Amino acid sequence: MNASGAKCMTSEELYNLSNSGAGTLITKSCTISPREGNPSPRYVDLKLGSINSMGLPNLGFDFYLDYVLEQHESGNDDIFFSIAGLTLEENIEMLTRVQNSDFRGIVELNLSCPNIPGKPQTGYDFERTNEVLNKIFYFYTKPLGVKLPPYFDLVHFEMMAEILNQYPVQFVTCINSIGNALYIDDESAVIKPKGGFGGIGGAYVKPTALANVRMFYKLLRKDISIIGCGGVETGKDVFEHILCGASMVQIATQLMKEDTRIFSRLISELEEIMSSKNYKALEDFKGKLIEL
Ligand code: DHB
Is residue 229 very low, low, confident or very high in pLDDT (cuts 50, 70, 90)? Predict the structure, then answer.
């Protein structure tokens, strides 16, 4: 599937994703009111990935709720709805409306947007994450997972896993971009917002993404699935995410570079690797990384 943010903001982009070879799709992270986002340039392709500071441009909660309800009416409930309120109250308001709607898909609650000046990433504040999940699971009973930022310290993995294991979280998506990096071309930043600081995706982040998938696969309850995200460019990258424990993968940077044709290419490359190894199903190698 796409990662939230990549080609999933407008009706046309969502239509193209739904008619691609992707297993499913996710909508652009939304806020209650539509947002223009940050000034451009705010997304730049780099040789080994991408940098972005979009600032949550989106068409507003009602637009995406209408879209997923339309999909429900045409029989498609295998769809992910990304929610990214700027406050806990905003998330509660959106999730209350999702709870009370006919939506039968899956919510990905974004705890890791790095691009809003003055708003810390919830996923880096462990106490706050616990409070957010506590308040949300008090009333929200439909399938819900969380999009996490990358962690780099073993104690942080353990702290976050301990919190998540206390709640009926269905999945975690690892990882959002590595936040607040700086890329320079000649003497200049390449994006305008925040003095050039933005989230990095693509090949740069794959080893960090794999480590996050692996650690959460080991530390979380077995009924919490992992969606791998970070640096997927080829079927081999998909294979490695699954080997670390992912059940699915999301694509952002390479989808931006290559468009929706990428999904059928990745599937055939993955199938080729699987048949060369005599694997018939993802379960034959999921989580089975050889540790020396
Ligand atoms: C944006 C970036 C993210 O990484 C995210 O998770 C949500 C929103 C953005 O800048 O639009």
Answer: very high
The pLDDT of residue 73 is 97
Residue 290 counted as domain residue: no
Residue 229 lies in a domain: yes
Determine the Cα–Cα distance for residues 287 and 216; give it in Å rounded to an integer: 11
Q: What does pTM read for this prediction? A: 0.98
Residues with C-beta less than 6 Å from any ligand 1 atom: 5, 29, 37, 53-56, 84, 110, 112-115, 176-177, 199
Asked if 17 contacts 25 with a C-beta cutoff of 8 angstroms, the reply is yes
Residue 5 lies in a domain: no
* 191 within domain boundaries: no
Annotate 201-214 with DSSP letters as a single string: ESGGGHHHHHHHHH
Residue 49 — left, alpha, or beta (φ > 0 → left; ψ -120 to 50 → alpha)?
left
Interacting residues of 248 by C-beta distance below 8 A, sequence separation 6+ = 1, 23, 225, 227, 228
Q: What is the CATH number of the domain that holds 160?
A: 3.20.20.70
Ligand 1, atom 11, residue with closest C-alpha:
56
Catalytic residue set: 113
How do residues 85-105 score in pLDDT, each as one tens digit?
999 999 999 999 999 999 999
Number of domains forming the structure of the chain: 1
Q: Ligand 1 mean position to 114 CA, how many Å?
A: 6
- Of all protein residues, the one whose alpha carbon is nearest to atom 7 of ligand 1 is 113
Reported confidence tier of residue 117, pLDDT bands at 50, 70, 90: confident
**Contact call for residues 93 and 38 (beta carbons, < 8 A):** no
Domain residues for 279? 11-38+56-182+204-284
